[in-house]
Amino acid sequence: MTKTAFIRQLDLQRIARVAKEEHVMCELVSENMTLRVYPEFIVPSLETKKEEEDFIL
To answer: Which domain of life does the protein's organism represent (predicted)?
Structure first.
């Protein structure tokens, strides 16, 4: 059974600010749910990956 979890916007903003300013990963744990907030999260696109490979070659 799925449970709905609510996070107050103010709490989420506070967690995000700490993660960004302190350059750390923060976790918010509640029963069976874990929310991880990273200071930076970049998913390279295929074009970026190809450019990186071309640059290395």
So the answer is: Bacteria
23-30 long-range contacts (CB < 8 A, ≥24 apart) are 30/5
Closest-CA residue to 17 (of 43, 36, 33, 37): 37
pLDDT in tens, 4-49: 767 788 888 888 888 888 888 888 787 777 888 877 755 555 565 5
Strands (E), 1-57: 26-30, 33-37
Domain boundaries, the chain: 9-56
